[in-house]
Write a structure and sequence with these properties.
The complex is a heterodimer of chains A (about 350) and B (about 160). Chain A has about 350 residues and is an all-alpha fold. Chain A has helices at about 1-30, 35-60, 65-120, 130-140, 150-185, 190-230, 235-245, 250-270, 270-295, 305-350. Chain A folds into three domains: about 1-30; about 30-85 and about 140-175, no CATH class; about 185-350. Chain A has ten helices and no strands. The longest helix of chain A has about 60 residues, at about 65-120. Chain B has a four-stranded antiparallel β-sheet with strand order 1-8-3-6. Chain B has a four-stranded antiparallel β-sheet with strand order 2-7-4-5, with no helix packed on it. Chain B contains five helices and eight strands; from the N terminus they run αααββββββββαα. Chain B is globular and about 65 Å long. Helices cover about 40% and strands about 25% of the residues of chain B. Classes of the chains: A mainly alpha (about 350), B alpha+beta (about 160). Chains A and B meet through α2, α5 and α6 of A and β1, β2 and α4 of B.
C-alpha cells in the first residue's frame, strides 16, 4: 500500500517535472524571440523544400547532392523571377517613394478633419489633444528611417538573416531526419513510443499547414497581379504581392490585404472606378480561393473552430508579429494533438 | 595491399560502413533479400534503445506504435489471464516482436519485459509510413513480407481451430 502511494506520488512529480521543463523551454523561446526570426523562416522554407528532397532521394539521388541541386535551382528560379519582375517593381517603388509625402499629407488631412469633427461633437476631449497625439505618432513613424545608425542596424540584421537562413535551411533539409532522431533519443524508454507518435503528428500538422498556406498564397498573389494588370490598376504588382503575403494568415489576412489595396487606390487616384475594379477582382479571387484553390491545396486542413482560429492568430500576432500569425494555427493544433495523445496514452490506457 | 583489398576499401568508402545495425537487420525475415542500399535506408529509421533488467518495453493494452528487434539480451513476453501474468515466450538475439503494431493502432496483446540488460532496435509506424511514401519500392517489399508473415500466422490459427473442432 505504502509502495503504491509512493509510486503515485512519484508519477505526480514526474508530470509536474515534465510540465516545468516544457514551460521552461517555452519561456526561454519567448525571451529570445527576437533572435528566432531567421530560424523560423528557415523552418518554414524547410517544410516547403523537404518533400521535394525526399522525392529526389526516393528516386535514388544522394540527399546532400539533392539539397545542393535544389538550392541552386531555387536560386536560378529566383534570379529569373527577379530579372523578369524587377523593372516593374522598380517603377512601382520609385513612384510610391515619390508620391509617399503626398499620400501621408492626404491621410493626415483626412485624419485632422475626422479629429476636428470628433472634438466638436465630444466636448469632454480638450481641444488639440488628439491632433497632438496624431502628430507624435506620424513623427515617430517617419523619424528614424533616415537615421544612419538605424540604417546600418537594418543592413546588419538583413545580412545576418540572409546568411543564417540559407545555412540553417541547408542543414535542416539535409539532416532533418537525423536531428529528429537525435532529439527523440533523449526521451526515456517509458514515454518513447508516445513521444515518437506525438513528434510525427506535430511535424505532419505543421508541415501540411505551412506548405498548403504558402502554395495557396503564391497562387492568390499571382492571380491578383495578373487580374490587376489586366484591369490596369495602378501598383498592380505591389498590391498583388501584399494580397498574396497577407493571404498566408487565415481569415484576418485577406481582409488586411483588401484594406491595404483599397486605401492605396483611394489615396493614389481617388477614383471610385478603380476601387470598384479592385473590389471586383478581390471578390473573384476570394471566390476562386475558397471554392477551388484552398480545397485543392489544403487537402488536409486543420479542424479548428473559426473563432478559435481568429483568437490564436491574434495571440500569435501579439507575440511574434506576422510570423507569429502564420505559426499560430499549427502551434495551436500541435498543442491540441499533444493533449489528445497524452490523454490517450497516459490516462485512457492507464499506463501513467 | 592487393588490388582486391584496395577496391574493397574504396567500395566500402562509397557505400558507407556496415556498422552494427545492418548485420542485425539482415537476420530479420522481414528484411530478407533486401540490398545493402535498402538496408541503409532502413537503418535511418531504426531507433536504438537499451532496457535494464525487469524494465518493461511495452505494456499489455498499451497503444502500439512499432516493432522491436533484439540486438543483444533477452525479452520475456507475458499475458494477463485471470488477473495473473502467464509467460508466452522468451525471445533471444535476432528475434523480433510487436510487428502487428506496424500495421494498425491497436492495443498491445502482450507485455514485453527485458530479462537482462537488453539492446533493441525499434522500427515504428510513423517512420515506416514515411519510408513507404518516399520509397514505395522498398516499402512494398517490407509490407509484402509483413503480410506473408501475418497470412502464415492466420493459416496456423485456422488449422489449430479446425483440429479443435
Amino acid at each position: 500500500m505504502e509502495k503504491n502511494e509512493f509510486q503515485k506520488l512519484w508519477k505526480t512529480f514526474e508530470i509536474i517535472a515534465i510540465g516545468c521543463v516544457l514551460f521552461g523551454i517555452l519561456l526561454v523561446l519567448y525571451l529570445v524571440r527576437a533572435l528566432l526570426t531567421p530560424f523560423i523562416i528557415a523552418f518554414v522554407i524547410t517544410f516547403f523544400l523537404s518533400p521535394i528532397v525526399d522525392y529526389m532521394e526516393g528516386e535514388g539521388i544522394n540527399r546532400t547532392f539533392a539539397v545542393i541541386l535544389l538550392i541552386i535551382l531555387t536560386l536560378i528560379f529566383l534570379f529569373i523571377l527577379w530579372k523578369l519582375t524587377w523593372p516593374t517593381i522598380q517603377t512601382e517603388i520609385s513612384s510610391f517613394q515619390k508620391n509617399a509625402p503626398f499620400y501621408i499629407s492626404k491621410i493626415q488631412d483626412s485624419l485632422n478633419r475626422a479629429i476636428d469633427l470628433l472634438e466638436k461633437n465630444m466636448g469632454f476631449i480638450p481641444k488639440g489633444t488628439l491632433e497632438k497625439a496624431l502628430q507624435q505618432k506620424i513623427n515617430s513613424l517617419t523619424s528614424g528611417t533616415g537615421d544612419v545608425s538605424s540604417l546600418i542596424k537594418i543592413i546588419k540584421e538583413l545580412v545576418t538573416t540572409l546568411i543564417v537562413i540559407p545555412f540553417v535551411t541547408f542543414f535542416l533539409v539535409k539532416d532533418g531526419r537525423k536531428i529528429k532522431k537525435m532529439l527523440i533519443a533523449y526521451v526515456p524508454n517509458k514515454y518513447f513510443e508516445t513521444f515518437l507518435t506525438l513528434f510525427y503528428k506535430i511535424d505532419q500538422q505543421i508541415s501540411n499547414y505551412i506548405r498548403g498556406q504558402l502554395i495557396d498564397s503564391f497562387i492568390v498573389g499571382v492571380i491578383a497581379i495578373i487580374g490587376l494588370y489586366l484591369f490596369r490598376v495602378n501598383y498592380a504588382f505591389l498590391i498583388g504581392v501584399v494580397l498574396g503575403m497577407f493571404n498566408i494568415i487565415p481569415y484576418i489576412g485577406p481582409s488586411m490585404g483588401f484594406v491595404f489595396g483599397s486605401l492605396l487606390i483611394l489615396i493614389d487616384t481617388g477614383s471610385t472606378v478603380n476601387l470598384i475594379k479592385f473590389i471586383c477582382i478581390y471578390v473573384c479571387i476570394r471566390v476562386l480561393d475558397d471554392i477551388i484553390i484552398s480545397p485543392l491545396v489544403l487537402s488536409r486542413r486543420v479542424h479548428v473552430h473559426t473563432l478559435m482560429v481568429i483568437i490564436v492568430i491574434m495571440l500569435g500576432g501579439f507575440f511574434h508579429g506576422i510570423l507569429g500569425m502564420l505559426l499560430a494555427v499549427p502551434l495551436y493544433c500541435s498543442i491540441k494533438v499533444t493533449f489528445q495523445i497524452l490523454y490517450r496514452g497516459f490516462i485512457e490506457y492507464g499506463n501513467w | 595491399m592487393s588490388k582486391k583489398r584496395i577496391s574493397n576499401v574504396i567500395l566500402q568508402k562509397i557505400r558507407g560502413r556496415e556498422g552494427d545495425i545492418i548485420p542485425v537487420l539482415r537476420t530479420v525475415p522481414l528484411f530478407e533479400g533486401l540490398t545493402f542500399r535498402d538496408l541503409k535506408k532502413i537503418e535511418l529509421i531504426v531507433h536504438e534503445r537499451t532496457f535494464m533488467p525487469d524494465e518493461v518495453v511495452f505494456y499489455e493494452r498499451q497503444p502500439g506504435t512499432g516493432m522491436y528487434i533484439i540486438k543483444k539480451g533477452l525479452i520475456k513476453l507475458t499475458k494477463t489471464i485471470n488477473e495473473e501474468k502467464a509467460k508466452i515466450a522468451d525471445l533471444e538475439e535476432g528475434e523480433f516482436f510487436g510487428e502487428m503494431a506496424l500495421l494498425e493502432d491497436y492495443p498491445r496483446s502482450a507485455e514485453a519485459t527485458a530479462v537482462v540488460k537488453t539492446e533493441v532496435l525499434g522500427i515504428f509506424r510513423p517512420d515506416l509510413f514515411d519510408l513507404i511514401e518516399h520509397n514505395p519500392r522498398l516499402g512494398s517489399k517490407i509490407l509484402m513480407k509483413l503480410s506473408q508473415r501475418l497470412a502464415n500466422r492466420l493459416r496456423k490459427t485456422t488449422e489449430m481451430k479446425l483440429k479443435e473442432v
